[in-house]
Amino acid sequence: MTIELYDAVKIAKDQVLQLFAEQTLPHLMLEEVNFDETEQAWLITLGYDSHHEVRTISRGSKMVSSMFGDTSITTEEKIPRVYKVFKIDASDGHLISMKAAHV
Questions:
Q1: Which helix (DSSP H) or strand (DSSP E) does residue 64 occupy?
Q2: Which tens digit of pLDDT belongs to each residue from 24-51?
């Protein structure tokens, strides 16, 4: 049996959800796929947000706020992504390895 690309991606996604079951993985996405001809393995890169910070910055005075409502501005910090590369055996679909991808 040969594992096709779609199946390899599903296996990688299932594995990351099982391995990190105690954590939330916001915005989990497929980032990259590659087939290693030498090792006959799929290399599937999945990425997710490591955390999400929202800061509220107050602009304006209390008088302006009372006249025009809330004048605070919400800004979002850049959200760092985490990338994991899953090596999936193309012959039977077992997980060979999971490594952190450094971008």
A1: helix 62-68
A2: 888 999 999 999 999 999 999 999 998 6
